[in-house]
Amino acid sequence: MKVLRHEEFEEGCKATCNGPYDGKWSKTMVGYGPEDNHFVAELTYNYGIGEYRLGNDFLGITLVSSQAVSNAKKMGWPLKEVTSGVFETEAPGGYKFYLEDKEQLKQDPVWKVTLGVSDLQKSVSYWSGLLGMKIYEKDEEKQRALLGYADNQCKLELKAVGGAVDHGTAFGRIAFSCAKEELPNIEALMKKENQKILTPLVSLDTPGKATVQVVILADPDGHEICFVGDEAFRELSKVDPNGGKLLDDAREEILRWLVPLSSGRAGGVTSARGAAMEPAERGPAMAPGCPEGPWAVGEETAILHGGFLLAARLLQPRPLRELRKADWPRAGVPITDALREIGERCPSPLGLWKKEAVAIVWAKILLPAPPAASLEWGWKDDGFFSVGAMIPDVNHTALFELVKALEVPRLFVQLLLALPPAVCREQLENLVEYISSETSPSDIRFFLDVWWEVMKHREGQEDATVSAFSALIHQHGAEPSLEDGLQPPKRFKGDPGNPPGLSMVLLEGLKQIRGSIAQPRLRCYALANLAELLCLSSGLGPGDRDSPLPITEHLAKLSAMVSLWSSDTDSQYHPCGLGEKVREAERSMSLLSLIKPSREELFGGLELLCTLLQTWGEELQDTLRGSEELCFESYRLLDTLTTLGKNLDFLLETGDLGEDETRVLLELTQLTKDFLRDTRAVLKDLDASLVSSVAMAIIAQRLDRHVDTCSVFASEKTWAFSKAWVECLVKNKALFQNPELVLKLLETLVIFATSHHDKEAQELQMQVIKAIVECYTELSLSDKNKVISGVLASWGGPGLSQNVQVVREGFQEDLNVTLNQITKSVSDEGLTRAVTSMARLTLLSPEATVKQVCHLAVVNLGAHQFLAQILCSFPALSFLESHEDPGRPRSLVMRCLQEAVWGKLSTAREEEQFLQFLSFLMQPGSATPLVSPAEVTKAFVLPYLKSDSPQIELSLQILTKVLGIPSCSEDHWIKSCHPFPLLLSLCKLLDGYTKYWHQPREQLFPSLETKDLILSILCQLCELVGPETVPSSELWVQSLAWLHRKVASLDWTVGLRLKKLYGDYFKNEVPATLFEICRLPEDEWTSQSWPAYGPGSGLLAWMECCCVSPELRDTMLALLTINVDNPEEVNLFSKGFLVALIQVLPWCSHGEWKRLAPVEVSFTCIQVFCHLLHVAAMLPAGDCGEPLLVVALEVLSQYEVSSRADTSPCAALRRANEGHFLESITDNVGHEELRSTLLQKLSKLGAHSEH
After folding, report:
1. CATH number assigned to the domain comprising residue 142
2. Radius of gyration of the chain (CA)
3. Is 17 part of any domain?
4. Which residues make Cβ contacts (< 8 Å) with residue 438, sequence separation at least 6?
5. CA–CA dist 337, 895 (Å, integer)
6. Which residues on neighbouring strands pair with residue 265, listed in sequence order?
7. Within 10 A of 71 (CB to CB), how many other CB atoms are there?
8. What is the rounded CA–CA span in Å between residue 177 and residue 191?
9. Whether 450 and 573 share a structural domain
């Protein structure tokens, strides 16, 4: 909508157009087009009226305009979607508007006005029957009706409110134009129908305009209805091109009456017939609070506007755009008062209102006045249009003095550097030009502050106001206005083709005002700025300026600055809080300036610095030496000159310098050294007591180097455990979620805990431990392991619990409860939670936690693998302890297993769970093994391979498990476990089985079932142990010889089991009697005479060899020299075999029995068969009968079954030999029928054996 006309009245309206008020008032007509053919609103303002109360009479205006929806969203105006595409919003006075998100209606976007009624039917009858409106819609269910005078005009909607209509004090009226002649008829009709007439026909005067006649009625609910004569109204309602200006001019008067909730009475809306509605409105004042965005028109802009209007009045007859510096003390007062009032009414963070005010004024200066034609569209397309129209034309004097008054040089620089480069330089030149004329100390301070802020400015930190300002100026391509009372800025010396950079502008500004700088403090400020600017030059210095200071030096400097500001009552930062001082100090130290002087600017600046030091140096030295306290400006000067001096030395050594340049550098170097020599001592007395407070402020505010500061904070013992330190840690614990910081905090905690045992100290420790644990809990699992590694490295297995009493107290109960919950939640889902809980416990006391887990893994049925998974989530627990006890495991986990579990297993189930738990710790799948096979072997096997050890059988089972784990490197882990002594221990255990039945009953000795386990382990070791397990081949031979020599004292069969290990180095040593029954090759076998193997013991030795291994058994069967064709020899062998078998079997394990089985069953069957034939031969002829035949055939069948079961390589040969032997025996049978049947059976057996 736009302003159509504005009118001011000194007294109340006869027809109560302004409500029941007699005082001064105004009305402003606004709409989408002329009142003659559009429905428009009349905004009525009553001066001095504070507020109105809304009723339920006016329910809203509905507009069809997607542009209105878009504008509301852009301005951040609250919208509520009530139905699809229809949004409800409120005007500042609380009146409802409904915006339909559709293309704007061509004739008029205002679609309908809604009034509340108590009786729908009664109201419809009034408006339709008496006033002649057409009914377009009527909905009895929803209790609403839509009426109007024409299809293309705004409609009137009546809606039942379910009770009486309350007009409050904010009531308005709706107006219609009609022919003047109809007015008396309308009045007469209302009288006839006995309807209410509020204002009988009356003439109303508008100063300087037409006089109109009106009659005002009231419908059944008291809604006011005005009928106005059309002819005069057309003249009165013409659009006034000056309406907007008249409204602006009136705002000065309005501002005088403005109160926090300014009020008003809104005028209505005019249709083609002249209908108008007048809902009450809260005048020019906006809703409480400041609207969003720098260009939003609201209460603050209205106040600012008023301030400028009053300033313009004070400056008359000259306009504000001709404001001079000398005028400001008088004309600037209303502006600064307005800004102060804005600050009081619109409190905003970080002085947002100041920033918006400066941005508005500066934009007003930079942007050209909009052309007259833009008035029709500018308010829609230009966000700055409305607020820009409120501010009168001003010049740079107003801007600069406003910034000085607000003391916001940083804000000025933020906006300055947001401008396009050319405009930015031009504006800085304007500033230099301004402060160079009639220069005052405040001008100097302002210029130096701007210079300092330019160097401290950082890109990328622009807020919404600065960004909006930059976008606005770039969008309009601003050309600086010259109509501001200042002459166009002079171009400074330099390349005429290129405008000077900011450095040159600043240097030129200092040159122009140096004669006006008299105060020592300002001189120090100017010299410090100049020296700092020169240090920023890329041509000066060793190039390490961007390298940050060590954090301790950084904190010391910050502390010095804060201390100076705190003690200096003249400093602008003196009243600031610690946090703000630290922020500013850090900005002052972290210069990443956008301006870097060129070489020409550098040497021009060096020459200027040289001149100023010559002029001011001696006086400043006297001032500094005589001053009791150092100020920040002098501190900066000394610090910056120190840095500059180093850079000058560097440039003299490395620079390619001309004669004049060298002269300037040498002269300046000497001046700098002389100045510092007499004044540097004052820097030594700087107060560094605030370092800890400064560090905490950096952390609390997350300033630039807060990460480095956290490291110092965590490890600085002199700060630790003050209440402020603890509070800082607790509040900012999110910053300490880092493994290195957690470890530093833990170290600080332990040091404090070892020397502080009082109750208060313990309470502080509890708070700190809680905070540290919370930081630790948020770490990733890998980072938690880093912390655990650090804890173990620093304090060993006991961890924190060894030194921190508050950790020990209640830990065991916490441990028991937590692990009890863990063991009850054995599942994949519960694993993550369990690991988290374990991480906390492990941090506090690693050893106690691991011991308890190991214990539960053994005693809790089925929990061993789950607990092993949890432990393996912490590879840090593979920590190796340092101690001198060779019998104690170095692995923390192994020691915990040994102390918590080993020797305490009471059942076979516990032993089995222990074995599986240990296996998982060595082979946890995708996780890192927590213990190694070598560690397990050294801890649980090697010390217990003794026949009288209670753990011998469990140790052997463990050894079997570890041997099944493949090596992770080229060098097998067995190499580190003394393989040859291990082999000897196993051999000694085997040797003990030769005396198994001679052992005393009460003496501990492994069972025969364990013998197979030993044999299996020995076999595996012979496979694993090879020349590569020793450093050299020579040592390999020596080791074999050592083992051979040791084994020689044991039973001879033990040596046979090492043949794979011995290889070709040693022959098989067997009793000499074995050679009597076997064809043993002498290159592999050698005979030994042993007393226990006398004549006839060959078969015993042969049988013992068969027990050694299946391979040796097959070899023995193949090498047997019995002549099966000689019955006597066979008979002797049979008898000797049975004797040898009886001697061997008591010492055989289950595995050895299985190896002998093929030999035994076949031999037994053959022996029984021979005895049957012997019986047959002894019986009288014909008496053997059928039973003897049946038994003989069954024996052969059993032989066949056992023979086929033997799949050894020599089985076929053996079956052939045995078959030949059986046939030769059967041929001697005298009973022909028996002989024939048996030979037939044997022939079938032979045929099967061939297949």
Report:
1. 3.10.180.10
2. 54
3. no
4. 325, 326
5. 80
6. 44
7. 15
8. 20
9. no
Q: State which amino acid sits at residue 188.
A: A
Same domain (yes/no): 343, 461: yes
Q: Is 934 helix (H, G, I), strand (E, B) or coil?
A: helix
Question: Are 421 and 337 part of one and the same domain?
Answer: yes
Specify whether 677 is located in the same domain as 604. yes
Q: What residues contact 14, with CB distance under 8 A and at least 6 apart?
A: 199, 202, 204
Residue (of 105, 119, 118) closest to 271 by Cα position: 105
**How many domains in the chain?**
3
pLDDT tens digit sequence for 354-367: 888 899 999 999 98
Q: Are the C-beta atoms of residues 368 and 378 closer than 8 Å to each other?
A: no
Pairing, β 134-139 against β 197-204: unpaired
Residue ending a domain, among 645, 664, 685, is: 685
Distance CA 78, CA 72 (A): 7
Whether residue 598 lies inside any domain: the answer is yes
> Is residue 426 within a helix (H) or strand (E), and if so which, with residue range?
helix 421-435
Q: What pTM does this model have?
A: 0.65
DSSP 884: S
Taking 90 as the threshold, does the pLDDT of residue 613 lie above it? yes
- Rounded to the nearest 5 degrees, what angle is found at the Cα of 43, between the Cα atoms of 40 and 48? 175
Same domain assignment for residues 560 and 678? yes
C-alpha 445/C-alpha 409 separation (Å) is 10
Q: For 1078-1199, where are the E strands, in sequence order?
A: 1085-1088
CA gap 153, 272 in Å, rounded: 7
The CA-based angle 593-597-598, given to 5 degrees, is 140
Residue 445 shares a structural domain with residue 536: no
Q: 141: helix, coil or strand?
A: coil
In this structure, is residue 142 part of a structural domain? Answer: yes
Residue with tokens 């401290």, as numbered in its chain: 456
> What spatial distance separates the first Cα and last Cα of the chain, rounded to whole Å?
112
444 and 563 co-located in one domain: no
Sign of CA dihedral 1141, 1146, 1148, 1154: positive
Q: In terms of residue numbers, what domain contains 146?
A: 56-166
* Angle CA 138–141–143, to nearest 5: 60
Tell me the residue ranges of DSSP E strands in 238-284.
Answer: 276-277
Q: Collapsing DSSP states into helix, strand and coil, what is residue 591? A: coil
CA distance 514 to 508: 10
Nearest alpha-carbon partner for 1109 in 1155, 1067, 1043, 1142 = 1155
Give the residues across from 89 on adjacent strands: 97
- Between CA 614 and CA 108 the distance in angstroms is 77
Shortest CA distance to 876 belongs to which of 958, 823, 799?
799
On whether both 560 and 664 belong to a single domain, the answer is: yes
In the structure encoding, which two tokens stand for residue 1142, read together? 């009886």
Beta bridge partners of 45: 26
* The last residue of a domain, from among 166, 186, 210: 166
* 1055 CB-near residues (< 8 Å, 6+ apart): 1044, 1047, 1048, 1066, 1068, 1069
Distance in angstroms (rounded) separating the CA atoms of residues 595 and 372: 41
CB-based contact 167:279 (threshold 8 Å): no
How far is residue 920's CA from residue 1225's CA, in Å, rounded to a whole number?
61
The tokens describing 334, both together, are 């209303």
Say if residues 30 and 269 touch (Cβ distance below 8 Å). no
Burial of 115 (0-12, 13-18, 19+ CB in 10 A): buried
The tens digit of pLDDT for each residue in 433-469 reads 999 999 999 999 999 999 999 988 887 777 888 988 9
Q: Which two tokens stand for residue 702?
A: 């997350």
State residue 861's pLDDT score: 87
Whether residue 1195 lies inside any domain: the answer is: no
Q: Which of 803-812, 956-965, 1158-1167 has the lowest mean pLDDT?
A: 1158-1167
Cα-based torsion angle of the residue sequence 1001, 1005, 1011, 1015 in order, rounded to the nearest 10 degrees: -150
Distance (Å, rounded) from C-alpha 938 to C-alpha 894? 10
